[in-house]
Write a structure and sequence with these properties.
mainly alpha, Integral_membrane_TerC, two-stranded antiparallel ribbon, about 250 residues, transmembrane, CHP03716_TM_YkoY, globular, membrane, TerC family protein
């Protein structure tokens, strides 16, 4: 590979790793929210299964990317699901802890799988949009795309999975230490659902919103500004559990 081509691919790879890190933070937050109610041992298992599924779905999405470009319904279902679980939690007048524990381990894993599918599609579509204009190489085709592009996307996906693995644990610890943060976390989940909805509405098959707007600076600035406001607001308004409360749990 020529030096100029190598530099071009390297620069896009750096941007992609940063992008996948940001997208994976959303995935990690949802994973932490869904696993939080489980006992500690099952919680770790659920997060590890969620990480494995995220990897499988992302790799699978790369191989069927040409098909996914035409199936906007996957993102739509993911968006609706995230918005639904956020609203269901926020509109409850009483947050019944016993009711939360009724949710089985199997049901939690199933919900994590559904969320992972939606995030995998969103992540890979964003990655392909970033590398699609790179020049083709002599590496041949893998999964219906240039081999070098495929490798770049795989590296980006792995970087994103590393973020999910560590961020999910951090989010679980934060939610355990500051239970009142859960409302803010649910707002963030709902807002991530809105982001997926915007991508769905910008899909070429739907085209209600301009794709350039969704991928542009204005919308991304709005999205991350609202994320920051919710996160900071939740942090400053939440109360930390005392040691006595944690021990008596």
């Amino acid at each position: 590979m020529e030096l100029s081509l190598l530099l071009e691919y390297g620069w896009v790879l750096i941007i992609l790793i940063l992008l996948e890190g940001l997208l994976s933070a959303d995935n990690a937050l949802v994973l932490a929210i869904m696993a939080k109610h489980l006992p500690e041992e099952q919680q770790k298992k659920a997060i590890n299964i969620g990480l494995l599924l995220a990897f499988i779905f992302r790799i699978g999405a790369i191989f069927i990317i040409s098909y996914l470009f035409h199936v906007w319904q996957v993102q739509a279902i993911g968006a609706a699901y995230l918005i639904f679980i956020a609203l269901r939690h926020l509109l409850k007048k009483h947050n019944d802890e016993k009711e939360k524990k009724v949710k089985s381990y199997g049901m939690t894993v199933a919900q994590i799988a559904l969320a992972d599918i939606a995030f995998a599609v969103d992540s890979i579509l964003a990655a392909v949009a970033l590398v699609v204009d790179l020049p083709d190489t002599t590496m041949g085709d893998i999964g219906g795309m240039d081999g070098a592009k495929f490798i770049v996307i795989i590296i980006g996906a792995i970087a994103g999975l590393i973020v999910i693995r560590f961020a999910a644990g951090v989010f679980v610890r934060l939610l355990t230490k500051r239970p009142s943060l859960e409302k803010a976390a649910m707002l963030l989940v709902g807002w991530v659902g809105v982001k997926l909805l915007m991508h769905t509405l910008a899909h070429p098959s739907v085209h209600i919103i301009s794709h350039d707007f969704v991928e542009g600076v204005i919308w991304k600035s709005i999205f991350w500004s609202v994320m920051l406001i919710i996160a900071l607001g939740g942090w400053f308004l939440s109360k930390e559990k005392t040691e006595e409360t944690l021990e008596g749990k």
